[in-house]
Amino acid sequence: MSNHRIVFICIFFMTSLLFIGCHHSPEEKVYNYLEEGAQVETTFQEESASFIALEKEEVEIYEQMVTLPVEEMEKITTLVEEAISLAEERTQLLEQEKQIMKEAFEQYETAKDAMDELQTVEESIVLEMKRWIKERENAYFSLHDRYVEGIEKDIQLYESMTNEELTMEELKEQVQAINDIYEQVEEDQQTFNDATKAFNEVKTELYEELGFQVKMKETKDTEKHEEK
């Protein structure tokens, strides 16, 4: 039996402004709000190593858990407590990320409002920019909620390991349910990554229309797969 887990890290492009005027024109407002949002997102990147380490340790504990006989229930209980603690830490990190992303999306929403002041940009580009800002936001929160659901199922699985009456069939059913959730997480991850790619492509086009020269540096998404 196996349990799938994924660490998801937001992917985005950082942009560096080469030239900007002295006044806060509508063009500058749009640029600044979009870049402030991108900068907010980077603040969570440093936590990704901690998230991966937590997950790795949790998987190792689970593997110990399933190899112990029922007669070793005291050891199993100790391992269960450790695994639950790690899972709860993962949840806390996800909630921190969620708050950061909320702040970033608020900046993007402000940028959308500022786009209404633009006079020199094709309407189709503005509409596409607004579309991908919203679609990316929806994709992120769907991904977040699904992943939290997966962690909750992980915890339920750990707790069931202390039940001496737990049958192999019941265990398999729980593991399958968890696998199903994390497969959906993978799909949501791809949707978010696709939305991010489209968002950045349109953003580059928008910046060109605004008359800004920018350098784009991509931060790669990080995925980790662990199987039990």
From TrEMBL:
Keywords: Coiled coil, Membrane, Transmembrane, Transmembrane helix. The chain crosses the membrane at residues 6-22. Residues 84-121, 161-188 form a coiled coil. InterPro entries: Lipoprot_YkyA-like, YkyA-like_sf. It comes from the Bacteria. SUPFAM superfamilies: MW0975(SA0943)-like (SSF140423). This is YkyA family protein. It comes from Aliibacillus thermotolerans.
